[in-house]
Write the structure tokens for this entry.
Amino acid sequence: MNFENRIENFAITILNHRIKVVFSAIILIILISSGIRFLETPSGYRGFVQDDFKYYQDILELEEKYGNIDVLTYVIKPNKGDIFQKNVLKLIDELTEASWQTPYSSRVSSITNHQFTEVDGDDISIDNFIINVDGLTEENLSNLRELAKKEDSIVNFVMSESTNVGLININLEMPEDIAFKKPIDFAWNQKMIFEKKYPEIFVGVAGSAQFSHNFQSVAEADASKMYPGFLLLIIILTYLLLRSVMSSLIALLVIIFSILPSLGSAGWFGFEAQPPLIAAPIIILTISLAHAIHMLSIALTNMNEGMSKNDAIIDSLKINFTPIFLTSFTTGVGIAGLNFGDIPAYSEMANTVAVGAAFGFILSVTLLPALFSLLPIKSNYKESRMLFFLKKLASLIYKFKERFVIIISLICIYVFSLLPNLYFDDYFGSYFDRVPEWVEVKDIVDPEFGSSFFTFADIETNEPNGITNPEYLNKLDEFEKWLVQQESVADVSTVSDVVKNLHKNMNGGLEEYYKIPDNKALIAQYFLMYEFSVPYGMDLKNQMTADKSSSRMLIRTNYSTAIETVAFNKEVNLWIENNLKPFKTKGVAGIPIMMPHLFTENTNGLLLGLLFSFSFIILVVGLSLRSLRYGIISVIPNVVPFILGFGILTLFTDMVTASHQVAVLISIGLVVDATIHFLSKYQKAISMKLKADEAIQYCFKYVGYPIIIASICLFSGFIFLTQSLFFNNFVIGGMCAIIIIIALLIDLLLLPALLLIFGKKA
Amino acid sequence: MKNIIIVLIILIGTKLSIAESLEEKGYNIAKSSYESGRGFTDMISDQLMILIDPKGNKVTREISAKSLENLDPYDGDKNITYFETPKDVEGTVMLSHTHINEDDDQWLYLPALTRVKRISSSNKSGSFMGSEVAFEDFSAGDYRKYKWKYIGEEMYEGDLCYVLESYPTYENSGYTKRVGLTDELLRARKIDFYDRKGELLKTVFFEDYNLYGDKIWMADSMKVENHQNKNATIFQWQNRKLNVGLDKKDFEKSSLMRLAD
């Protein structure tokens, strides 16, 4: 029994037990889909890295010694003037007080509660920098401005150098595996209250807590805003393409039934609903949609030609079984290449899509025929004008085959020459550039402060109380001086700043004493004094260990790309190696260091994944065609869309990010689909002893239309994905859409010409 | 009609007096508890402070202290603290005149600077020497710094205890509420501290009670567990002696100045 007969028997069995098939499918789907409730809320940037990632481990070690690094920041900017106005200071003062109520907060720092030391001989008084805002005169305000500008621990920490922007930094001590929703909701509520009370002052929410929360809020917003529109799109699209309400309904059911259990499986696997996962249903949907359209369009055409409903669907299954399987398979394998990367969120998305592709295939060959047979379907399906156009196109290509090949080759060569401009990099600062609220704050903070992220360095002496050693403090000073000269660094603060300030204050407040004293005991006594005169949440515990053997440097970095960051990190490590002795450090750690490294390493992993997926798929295509010649020919239409796609990318940017690689892995399986269809039909035509031009006509007639339809489905799906608030999804969607459209053009224009020139002739 | 009104007034009156009596009862227990610890005249002790981080690493600091009781009900005691370890702070002395609802006066002698500095800070809710104890916790038993409420009774380690809630009355406190257990001997056994956002911050356990001078119970160990940052601190009192006849003049600023000469 040959393969086609087996498929036919299979189809007949399905139709004979159609009710059982439908019910068992539905029950199974409900069972698996019930796992959706286990989908975990994204844990922000921490869920984006693997626990054993070196740069994440650095952060965890740092947190073990000095407490959680996450900060929630209010950004305060008056519409007119700087922050030294009564109403602005009043807002800061009130908001600072209110901030102590923030869930999980451990300390709150702002210009108003900054501990300011006043010296009068041997009398030292320590108090909030700003007290009794209502009583401040114009003169007081301008004095405070001058004082603040001179205070190292105010500038760039709670106030910008220009004095135009104030910050309130809230340190959060988050319990493990708790998302930032509570503190962020609290903060946004405060923002609304205060903006209402002070309409002339902007209040924004920023910091790593907001950054982290963006992962969650963006995923939620995407899911609730994108999905309904997308569903509507499929309904319209299927109806337009099939012109049958019942058929559209079947397509819709198959699509939804492919998506739900794959998300259910994701839940059972314990995946997190990170923004990349949002793309999974859309990708599954486009694949299943393409399957359904292939199946239904041929069945409806058959009915038009007088076949019975059951025969029509059996015949369609016979024609489509292998291509549908191959599409699902190559898509699954292609996207599985993401598992070579270092970002769990992308692997989880890939594996969800792979599961979805499997469901798409299974349902398209079981549930779909069963439903088609069960439901009352009348065919209004008319052969469109598309076929006429395709016929014209085929003869045009036949006539000018050499020119088609030459012109497209020239375009390719030109584009190819653009490719060397491309370079791998990433810019984690851009992830949420499509979230207006985030951008609004970013546009205020970045020019004034560099960024709202901190980097840290834990500098160890390896002996208790070692940090009171003047040699150590001078070394910190030296390191700080070097750091601030680096382009990536906006500001640095260390415990030596604290010591210098204390030394000055203990010596009558004279500027000449703003230095590190050359006496270890004295420094130890300063710290002791400092330690029992500070208020709640203002101590040095987040800057030094209890045994005073090490201290933490705070570095405010400018936004940098992955390449810049990796280079900066190297420079820092080199400086440390050459200069820091006898003190030790593991180097700088923090979100601005971790994220770029994550993407650099991810890029390397993905390149391996690309190599794997590409060669595997090419091999599968070659094997399925059972011909070396066609296998080689197939490489061209499968590779050219990517070259042209990246050529088009150079029009916008030369930076190739991980998202672009992800796009390649997603689209590779889809691109080969059309090639397989076309080549297998061509082989069949040749075996039917058709002449070359007739063979091409045959291909266009039987696969031209489905290829176009499938590409339209995929293209619209990816265009929809560009609506995502997550920048990376936007890039993936855009890139995939471009590649799919180019692939369609190549399959319709270049592939036939190539076959006419290089293909076997009957 | 008149009678009904009188009955109503009485009823409302008793209702109010019951509500009031919870606060009063709390206040009275706190006051008695505080007063049961008074009458020591003066006191000397050595103190050991052990800081324990979440991994179990320990750091020990040694202090010795002198206190002078102030019988003025509107003012606080006077204390001198001598810092002994780490070696770099040896010889550092702090003198403080505590007050009830206003800032303490505080003088510090730094031997490396050979000067006495007067430190006034309105805000002492912060960590004491990097521990989980705040300065304000040292006067945790002073009934005059809080508003009280009697909640009920509870068994604790086999002893019947009064459950008292207290709310700080002074500005800049790091807490919003405390829930404490005081046993029938009027000894504070355990206090839960709630931070500014009303969440449980830490628990202080008073242990190792000894009877001094046949009449005053004093805890010679105080264990603090911070529930938020998972650090702990243990305070231990050793060689505690009461009523040793300290010179009042030692507790004046001038005696500290003499160190600087």
Observations:
- The two ends of chain A are 27 Å apart (CA to CA).
- Chain A has 24 helices and twelve strands.
- The mean pLDDT of chain A is 87.
